[in-house]
Amino acid sequence: MIDRRQHWESVYSSKAADQVGWFQPRAASSLRLIEGCADRDAHIIDVGGGASVLVDDLLDAGYRNLTVLDLAESALATSRARLGARAASVQWIAADITRADLPVARYDVWHDRAVFHFLTAPADRARYVAQVLKSVKPGGHVIVAAFGPGGPLQCSGLDVVRYDPDALHAEFGAPFRLLGHETEIHHTPTGKEQEFVYCYCVRV
Predict the structure, then answer these.
(1) How many whole angstroms separate alpha carbon 109 and alpha carbon 135?
(2) Hey, what CATH class is 2-203 in?
(3) Nearest Cα to 109, choosing from 15, 6, 201?
(4) What pLDDT, in 10s, does the model give residues 47-61?
(5) What residue spans define the domains of the chain?
């Protein structure tokens, strides 16, 4: 865990937030999916949100109960600095999602873009799913975006797991009912194309 944390701290300390491969100037797909399932009072956690601008978009849209979790404190600091005074209205958690002490049945929406595919060990994926089961309310929504079959084999120097929609949903299993999925071609700051698969389901 120390090595994993050090890796991401190094990434965010050495690169500007808009130069990392997963940077989006606007988190349009994520925002659309969240708005499609959550009212403005919903409790939402953005896992691996780091320096992402999704929190900005959600605040702009009027959401009030937001949590951003990331392994890298430096990434969270970037977002807090960008938001200024508005950062005080967001809960910030610096932790490994597979081991974080999350509240029970708190969240109406769990969002993750580009964390789950870094969990190459089955035990880590099982711990991740256990966290979702613990902290998402029954009837809550889970939105996970990971590299699709046409995505890269590595990202930020780390191996990843690529998923088609069925394989991604299978990691979560029977406690979750698949509502839909979609594919997005992400353009990195260096001009490369990366295939992402978004799966969205409900916690039954």
Answers:
(1) 10
(2) alpha beta
(3) 201
(4) 999 889 999 999 999
(5) 2-203
